[in-house]
Amino acid sequence: MSFAAVFTVPSLLRNATGVLPVCSLALLKHTALRYCTANGKMKSKRKADHLERTANDFRQEMISKAKVCGIANESETVKRLRLAIADKEFTFKAGQWVDFFIPGVAVVGGFSICSSPGLLEQEGVLELAVKQTTHPPAHWVHTQCTLDAEVALRVGGNFFFDPQPSDSSTNLVLIAGGVGINPLFSILLHVADLHRTVAKNGTGYQMGTTDLFYCAKNTNELLFRKHIIGLTDAFPGKISCSFHVTQQSSPICEKLQPYVKERRISANDLKKNISKDTLCYICGPPPMIESVSKMLKNLGISEENIFFEKWW
After folding, report:
1. How far apart are CA 195 and CA 202, in angstroms?
2. Domain CATH for 23
3. Could you report the per-residue pLDDT of 48-74, keeping only the tens digit for each?
4. Which pLDDT tens digit goes with each residue over 239-291?
5. Parent domain of 239
């Protein structure tokens, strides 16, 4: 699972180069030095690998050591890793990904972070949800990764949501396909943290509504579904979700039924939740992104308010 970047960044999100911390490259391990050039391009001729696809994306210079402190099955084909970050200066924005360096594995992985920046601030950990494939980094996660395994991470990506307290309130629509939920789940968790901050302190960014549309083959492949529903219950009228399944062969469980539609996401679904100022984030397979982007433009959303992250 690798990602290519969004191409436009509005003022609300434009906090990339020069703002994220830039630190020494002293933490570069031999693996990183061997397989990466200074600008992040891969020396290997492997076609369309993560580093090549994201060579022009923003990247922090810092590469931090990390240790696997939790492994869980998120679904039959997706493992969720919890990683303890060694460097206290390590930061990321909701929606970004990491270069994933594994000792002894030549290929550098690219995985979107699925946890919130708040979890990193509070507990010093972040989480990744990695789908099983033959790609070496994903294969390692599913076949060789163990607790206390040591890896290294570097944050990158122009696809993120990071409003500041003085920014105007905005509404979000998040649209995910398959494991494309990962960066959008990070954004959703960050939105919940923003609501909690205002409720606790009476100050902070005043978040508008957030509506998640998530499509997968069946309900078993709807990652984080219980947590997502929990957020809609915790923030009624502020966070909503609509699950869509396209190849469901078994009955949908009673608890999920109110949230699930057995069809693809349609323009009619989206138009009920958008206005011309809504920010729309999309992550999924390229055909889905192209289709949904066209829907949004036809519904009056300007191109500068549509952001996407493609995965392959």
Report:
1. 10
2. 2.40.30.10
3. 689 988 999 999 999 999 999 999 999
4. 999 999 999 999 999 999 999 999 999 999 999 999 989 999 999 999 999 99
5. 172-307
CA pair distance 70, 130, nearest whole angstrom: 13
The number of distinct structural domains making up the chain is: 2
Instruction: Assign residue 257 the CATH number of its domain.
Output: 3.40.50.80
Instruction: Say what the pLDDT of residue 276 is.
Output: 85
The span from the CA of 48 to the CA of 230, in Å, is: 38
> What does the DSSP assignment read for 73-131?
ESSSSEEEEEEEES-TT----TT-EEEEE-TT--SPEEEEB-S-HHHHHHHSEEEEEEE
